[in-house]
Amino acid sequence: MSTAIEVRTPSANYTVHIGPGLLADLAQRIAALHTTPKAKLFVVTSPVIWSHWSERFLASFGGTQPVVLQVLAGEQYKRFSTLESLAEQLAEHGADRDSILIAFGGGVLGDMTGFLAAIYMRGIRYVQVPTTALAQIDSSVGGKTGANLAAGKNLIGSFHHPLAVFADIDTLSTLPENELRAGLQESVKAGIIRDRELFDYMEAHTAAILAGNHEALTRVIADSVQMKVNVVAEDEFETGVRMLLNLGHTLGHAIEAATRYEQLLHGEAIAWGMIAATSIAQKRGMVTSAQVERITNLVRAYGPLKPFTADVHELVSLTAKDKKNRSDSRRFILPVGIGDATVVRDVTEAELTVATEELFAQMPTREDLAEANA
Ligand SMILES: NC(=O)c1ccc[n+]([C@@H]2O[C@H](COP(=O)([O-])OP(=O)(O)OC[C@H]3O[C@@H](n4cnc5c(N)ncnc54)[C@H](O)[C@@H]3O)[C@@H](O)[C@H]2O)c1
Ligand SMILES: O=C(O)C(=O)C[C@@H](O)[C@H](O)[C@H](O)COP(=O)(O)O
Ligand SMILES: [Zn+2]
After folding, report:
1. pLDDT in tens, 313-371
2. Which of 84, 105, 200, 373 is deepest in the core (most CB within 10 A)?
3. Per the annotation, which location comes first and is thus the protein's main one (predicted)?
4. Domains of the chain, CATH where assigned
C-alpha cells in the first residue's frame, strides 16, 4: 500500500506517491500522467543506482524502453558542465517538446534533471523517481531545481514542478547508511520548523527509523513531505513562509561551498547549520536550554556531526551570497521552540561568527569518530 500526497500550487498539481513496490508498474503509472503516447522517455540516472535497480526499473516498460542517460552522482557533479552534456545527449537522441525525462536517483540528479527539463527547448515535462532518503523526504517535491556554482550552492536554477513523484522506499535498501542519516536531517529540520509530532516521533523511534523499518521510514518520509507540501502550497516561489524550509541552510550551504562540495553531504552540512541557528536562537531567548538540548541530541542521533575544514570568516562571508538575501536585508531562519520557526532580518555578522566558532569548538576529530565507531 502506498501513500498519496497531493501538491496544489498556482502553477502545478501533482501527486507524490510513497511506498514499496512502485517500480513494478512505473511505465503504466507514467503513461497515465499524459496524453502523448508516442512521447519519448529519457531516464537520467547514475552508474551506482543503475547497477542496483535497472532491472526492476525497466521491467514495466516492455517493448518501449526509455533511453538511458547516465551521469556521475554526487555534489561535485551538480554543475553546468553536466547539464550541457545531458542537453547535448537529449538533442542527439532526438528529444522534442513531447519528451519526458525521468529523474532516477538522489537529490543531485533530481535537481539537475528538473533544471534540464526546465531549459531544454524552453521547457519539457519530467517525473521524479527519487532513490535516496533525502530525495524522497525533500528534494523531489516542490519544484526547486538547479545546480551549483563555485561561488555558491544552487546559484542557478528554476522553479519547475514534476508531473508526479514516485518514491519507492524499496530502493532505500541499497543506500549507504551515511546517506540515509544525512537525508533524515531534512526530516529533523521538518520537525523543528513545523511539525512537533514528527520531531517527537523521530526522537522515540530513532533505532527503527535508522534500521530502515518500513513502517517507521514511510511515516517519517510522508510526514516530512506533507509538511513541505503545505508550505509550498502557501508560498510556491519562496517570498515568505517557504524560507522556513531553509533552516540550517544559510550556513550549511556556506559550508558546502567553502569545502568545494567535497567534505560533507548536504544533510551533514545542514546538520551543522541547524546547530548554529539553534545557538543563535538560544542567545535571543527564542528556545530554552531544554529545547536546545533536545534539538542538538536529535541532530546528533541522526549524525554523527562530521568534522570539516574551513575558515570561519570565509563561511560568514559566504552567507552573504544566500539567495534569501535581498538588497535591504540578510535573512536567516531561526527556530522558535520546537515545531515553529521564523525569518529574521537582523542576524549580525558578529552573531554568525560566534555561532560558527562554536561549531569548531565542538567538532569531533576524525580520530574521535573512528573511536566511536570501533
Ligand atoms: N530541490 C530541493 O528542494 C532540494 C531539497 C533538499 C536537497 N536538495 C539537494 O539535494 C542534493 C542532495 O541529494 P542526495 O542527498 O540525494 O545526494 P545524491 O543525489 O548525491 O545521492 C547520494 C549518493 O547516493 C547514491 N545513491 C542514490 N540512490 C541510491 C540507492 N538507492 N542505492 C545506493 N546508492 C544510491 C548516489 O549515486 C550518490 O552517490 C543536494 O544537492 C541538495 O542541494 C534539493
Ligand atoms: O524546497 C525548499 O524551499 C528548500 O529550501 C528545501 C531545502 O532542503 C533544499 O536544500 C533546497 O534546495 C534549498 O534551496 P535554496 O533555494 O536555498 O538553494
Ligand atoms: Zn536541504
Report:
1. 999 999 988 888 887 788 999 999 999 999 999 999 999 999 999 999 999 888 887 88
2. 105
3. cytoplasm
4. 3-174 (3.40.50.1970), 177-218+228-373 (1.20.1090.10)
Residue 88 burial (C-beta neighbours within 10 Å; 0-12, 13-18, 19+):
exposed
33: CA distance to ligand 2 center in Å? 26
- Of ligand 2's listed atoms, the one at least distance from the Cα of 242 is 3
Give, for ligand 1, the residue of 50, 111, 160 to mutate: max count of ligand atoms closer than 8 Å to Cβ: 111
What number is the ipTM of this complex? 0.99
- Confidence (pTM): 0.97
266 given a catalytic annotation: yes
253 Cα: distance to centroid of ligand 2 (angstroms)? 10
Check pocket membership of 138 for ligand 2, CB cut-off 6 A: yes
**Pairwise CA distance, residues 4 & 9, whole Å:** 16
| Nearest Cα to Cα of residue 278 among 210, 328, 319, 335 | 335
The one-letter amino acid code at 283 reads: K
Verify whether residue 253 is a known catalytic residue: yes
